[in-house]
Each structure stands twice: as structure tokens, then as C-alpha cells.
Amino acid sequence: MDLVTVLDIVIGGLLLGGIYALIAMGLSLQYGVARVLNVSHGEFIMLGAFATWVLYTTLDVNPLISLVIVGPVIFIIGFLLHKTFFRHLLTSKPVLGEVIMLGILISWAIYELLKVTNTGNPLIAIFIGIPVAIALDFILHKNLFKRIGVSPPSQSAYEGSSLLATFGFLYIIQNIAIITWSSSSKGYSFLASPVNLGGAIFASNRLVTLGFAVVIGLAFYIFLARTRMGKAIRAAAQDPSAAELMGVNINQVLAICFGFGALMAGLAGVLYSMCFSIQATMGLGFTVIAIIVVVLGGLGSIPGSFLGGFILGIIGQIVTYFEPSLSLAAYYLIFIVLLLARPKGIFGK
Amino acid sequence: MPILEGEGVTKYFGGLAAVLDVDFHVNQGEVAGLIGPNGAGKTTLFNLISASLVPRPGTIKFKGVNITGKKPHQICRMGIARTFQTVKVFANMPAFQNVLAGSFFGTAAGVSPSEATRGVTEALEFVGLSEIALTPARDLTLANQKRLEVARALATKPELLLLDELMAGLNAVEVSEAMELVKKIRDQGITIVMVEHVMKAIMGVCDRIMVLHHGEKIAEGTPQEIANSEKVIEVYLGEQVDA
Amino acid sequence: MNINRITSNKAFSPVIIGVIAVLLATLPLYIGGYTPILLTSIYMYIILAVSWSMFSGPTGYMSLATAAFFGVGIYTAAFLGNTVPLPVFMIAGGLASSIVALLVGALTLRLRGIYFAIFTFGLVLLIAQLLMFWELHVTGTRGRFVVVLDYNTIYYAMFVIVAVLMLTAYLLRRSRWGLALQSIGENEEAAAHTGINTTMVKVINYALSAFFIGAAGATIATRWTYIDPVIAFHPLFSFLPVLMAIFGGMGRLSGPVIGAIIFAYLQEILITRFSELYMLIFGIILIIAILYLPNGLVGLIQRTWIHLSGGQRANT
What is the pTM of this model? Predict the structure, then answer.
């Protein structure tokens, strides 16, 4: 194997690794602090990628600019998801999210009913449905649930039900994407001009992507280590009740963490779309990889996820060189060895 | 031959030795106490004996057999049972089922359903919980939950019973009742090792006491000897002593 | 051997169940057309939901590998279906899945639950990829054809699996192994110190639950005629049984059954009306189910009943 090939593999591996590092850090934050194993994590990557594609192909928006546009939007989506659904799972008070859910279902039911009587107007259905949903929701909480003892769940019950909720999100998001964009591959060309590095030729978008991935990762790490919010997050990760006693607004922090997790995924998606083709079904594979990286780095360790991402990326690139369809199998092999020898990973506690 | 022996038992957590080079022995039929200030390593030692943790280095022998490195369920079937500092009953199961698990799985040989049921009834009667056999464990008072744990442990037909802070959280009346229970168990011929902070219980029930401090054994002897030992008094100065 | 003397379920007395079982067993003899086909699908989902909850219910370990076991069963039929009779490849499918479950269990069930969940989560993708690699490089084919069987035969086979599964699940619950499983779910450390070999109990039970999933997969494959890794290994089959079991409620054996029936029927209706949207709607329903019915539909009904009749009963 000559030097050019080695360089090819190394740069390719670092690129992949950078993306893996970002998505793993995001997942690690969500699991480590908010205690949610978000199996829909990959879908946020997909959303970031598709948003960039749409913006570039329809509005000619530079993908690097998309980073700044898509990022905050996905952050807000993640933030709100936590504030509504996962907050509810933690407590049992009525919350916006479930009202919306109930509203959708009731509106649809009313719509179907109205269709039978030939006045099927979706708007009417929604106007009736939402108030009914709100009223029903409050009544259910005030009367039925309080009296028959629906109480806040234990830690493991919460982890289980939040996992299942994210399973639900996975299907909702993925299917909306398939309906909107079909399941075929999409792509665009950006910064494809070649660059010569020591004899190996790379598209400049790869190098730019790699650079941005590393910069974002480091920026995030510094944010966690140095800023006030970062400290609050780390405190909440170690001991939520103690953090609360120290004046940390736990509810806010958990939602912010979830939002940041989604943000990292979204940004990774933007970067990924610059170099590779994208599909509406691409999410699941990324989620699995992110999980393996998080375990490799150590559950709950952000630096571990960062490092683990690069390790896995390089290994993946090496395996892909010899046999592209076996990369996931290689990752799982590493996973198995890890579980046998050192489940807590590199930096795990 | 002592029923339980430990030689050079050591356990490190990171760089810190929770238990350091402790030799101990417990004679058959006696009630041995294990005391020491907070952080002395008592519960760690318990966890080492009951196989929750593995000593490294060190060996532990039960009835002359080396049990170092065995799994908790194996230890249980060999005849060592334990209760827990934070009560670990099977909360959503009735008291009866809690003890039944011990009866079925904790004994050395296989057990028929009728034998198991009989064992449960006996154990519940022994600890005084026959009335509430059908109540879910989570609905019991703390004192009763502790009794339930003892019943579950007794159902495994142990020769050695490890009681981890049985008195913790009990009021004065409940402490006396617990002490009576301990004596009753001893009268059955079961060897007992108890970790305690409640001095009244330790002094009132134990035949021998071992004192740990910073993971090392600093004293050993009868309650009288321990009460008068200068070393022990020094170690406990400044500590809350429930007498 | 009645260990569990606390609750007795008069609504499902053996006589009624026996009658229903006989009726269902002989159904194709007097009802033809679409009904046996619909029922076969319902049986499939009942098997998936009940098998899943047989392990994940009492132990609290969430298995997301149902789709993987199902796919293994399907592929066993694809490999063997043309050479051996149905009962043989049905059992072979079950055994193959059990072996996978044994391996996965031995590896991950001695660790914390989260490792188990995430390992099983990716399993469906992993096995699919391995099979794709195999087909591409070793056999040079893409997908396989499965032997075609008539619908009535498939009906009877699936019914047999359901019947054996329900019997097994019922006996398991009332046996000492069911007690061991429940103890592990309540407090694994205490269970170990009470003499229960927790790892072995978990692994064996997991393999047992996987057997039925694999057997069902092998049987239903004959309805699809053409199989490739993408068709056989679909994550939806990890997700739907969980939804059905949770929606129906995992406290009683009837919970997953009711959940499976409701959702299988719902799926039939939705697929014909909104073929693209039905997965989306299922996602929404799952979220609602999680939010509102942590103890499932059956649990809700049970507690409302208790509340209305003014009493408190111990539950197991």
C-alpha cells in the first residue's frame, strides 16, 4: 500500500471520524444528562442534511451558511421536544405536547366523522378538535389520573418510556421525510474542486468538512468546560438533585442539553451532505454508529465520544477500503470486544 | 474450625483502599459484631464476604472451602445469606412471594412446591409477619420490610447470616424487637455477623466484636474489652454514638 | 402447581378459552376468504408481542432485537423451505433465533440493561448487512424464493405457534422460573443474593422467547414468496411488538394479546386507506400510548375497575 492510499484512508477516516465525533457527542449529552437514549438521533442528522440540500438546490444557499441557519432551528426543535414530551414523562402534569397529540387524533376522528356527513373540512375539524383536546386533557389529569394513582416513574421506567417515545419520533420523522422526498438518494455538488495533498487528491469539500467538524467539536468541548452553562450541564450530569440545590434550573438545563444533542446531529448532517449523497432512511445507521462510539468512549464522557468518533472513523475507513459492505460488522465487532473486555469504554466511570 | 475466615482481605477502589489486609474469623454459632466510624469499610467487607465484590488480594473461606471469587447465588446456596443496608425487598410482589423466592432458589438442593410453601410459612411465622403475607412489600412499614428481608434470607436455610445495619432507621421499640429477633435466630444455631452503628444492639447481643477504621482492623474482642479499649474510644471521639 | 394464589381471572376461565381455541383451530373449515388471512396476520403480531413481553416484561430489560429474530426465522425458511417440510423448517427457524438470542444474551445480559438495549437495537441492521455481504460475495444471488404454501396450512401452523406460546407463557408465569424472572426485574442484586443465577435465568428465558419469534418468521415467510435482507429485516418489527405490548399493558398475559389484535386490525384498515401514512400514524399512537398509558390499556381498565369497586388488591 503506497503513501497516497494511506493518506487517502487517513484523511477519509478523519473526515468520517469528525462526523461520528459530533453525533456521538450529541447523543452522549442527551443520554448522559437528560438520561434519554434517543434512537431518533440519526433522524436529526437526516433533517440537517436534507435541509441543507433543499436550501442549496432551491435557494442557492451556501451549505456553510446553512450551518448557521439549520443549527438553531434544530436546536429549538430538540429543546421543545424535551420541554413538552419528555417533561411529561418525568412528571405527570398536562403538557403542551400531549395536548397537540390528542388534538391531532381528535381532529382526525372528527374529520372522518364529518366526511361521512359530507361536510369534511379539515379546518372545522381542527377548530373543534383542539379545544376538545385541551379540555379532555385537563379533565383526564385532574380526575382520572390523580385518583387512580398515576405517579412519576422511577429512573429506569423513565429511561424505558423515553426510549420508546424516541422510537415514536423516529418513525414520525422518517416517514414524513419519505413522504416528502421519497426514499431515493439525493445529492449536490459543492466545493468539489480537487486539492492536492502530498500526492493524494481530495475534493476540497472534504477538507473543509473535516476542518469544521473538528472546530465545532472543540468549540463544544470548550463551551462545556469553561462557560457557566457548561458547568451547569456537567453538574446536572453528575447529580441532578444536588445541582438543583445549587441553583441550577434543572428543567431548563435538561431541555437545553437535549436541544444541543439535536444541534450536534443537525450540524453533522449539514457537513455530511456536503460530501456524500443522502437518503431519507439514512438515520438509523448513524444512530447505531453513534451508540457504538458513545460506548467506546465511555457512557457519559464527552471527550470520550470525541476521541471514540475519530477512532471508529479511521477503522471504518480502513475496513471500507477492503470491503465496503462490512463496515457496520467491523463496528459491531469492536462493540463486542468492548462489551467483553471493558464495557465502560475509554473514559467511562 | 471457624465457620468463616478471611485472610489478608483487601479491596481497592481506584487508589483508595476501602479494606486493607484484614484477617478475621467467625466461630460457629456466635454473634459477631462489626463496627467502626463511617467510611471504615464495614459495608465493603460485607460485600466482599457476600460476593458482591471480589477481594484483591485476599481469600475468604466458608466452612474451610475457599469462596473467593464465587458468584452471589453460589454463596447463597452454600449457606450464606444477607440483608441490605438500604432495604431491597421485591416491592411489587406480596410478602409471601418475596420469601418464596428465597425458599425456591436459595437452598442447596431442589425443592418441591409444597416444601417451598411450608418453608415460607415457617419463615414468616418466625419473624412475625404471618398476618400480612399477602400485602405487597412496598406497602409495609420499614420495620416490617426489614423483617421481610430477614424472612427471605432465612428461607434460604443459611448457616451464616449477614445483617447489614438492621437497626438503621428503627425507633427504640423496634430496635428492641429486632434485637430479640437476632437472639432468636442465634438460638436456632445460625451464625450471625452484624454491622451496626447502634451500640445498644451491638453490646447487647454480640459475643465478639471487630472494629474497623480506615479499612484496617484496629481491635477485636468481647463487648467488654472493646468498650474499655483506649484505641476504640479514641477512634470514636467526636463520632455520634447511639447508646 | 399454583404458586400465584393472589389473583384469579374469572373473565378468562379455562372453559371459555378452550371453546375459543377450538373455534379458532377449526376456523378455515367453515369460514373462508379473507378472514383466515387476516387472522394469520393477527396471530403473527400476537406471537411477536407476547414473546417480547414474556422476557422484557418481568425483567425490565428492553429487547429491541425482535426484528432480528424474526428475520433469522424468515431466512431459515428461505434456506431450508424448498428441501424440508414445514414443521421442520419452522422449528429450525425457532432454533436458529434461539441460538442468536443465546449468544446475544450471554454477551450482554450480564451487563447493565442499557448495554443490552443498545446492542439489540443495532442487531437487525447488522444481521441484514452480514446477509447482504454473504449473498453478494458467497452465493452471488440477491434474495431467495421461498416455497409457497396454501393459506390454510399457514393458518394452522401459526395457530399452533400461538397456542403453544400462550400455554408456555401462562405456565412460565405461574412457575418458579416466572418468580425468578420477576424477582430479577424487581431488584436484580437482591435476587442474586437470594440464590437466583440471574444471568442464566435471563439468557435462557431470552432464548425461549426468541424461539417463538423465529418460528413465526419461518412460517410467515411462506406467504411472501420472495425474500431479501431488506425485506426480512425491517426495524418496524422491533418497534410494533413493543407498541402493542405497552398499549395493551404488560401486567397480565392478556395485555399484549389485546394490543396485538387492536393494532393488527388497525394496520389492515390503515394500509388500505393511507398506505404511506400508516407508519406515521403508528408513531403518533405510540407516543400517545407512552404518554397516557404507562401501564397500558389493560392496566388502565384494571385500575379503574379497582377504583370503581372501592377496593385495594395486591397485584403481582
Answer: 0.85
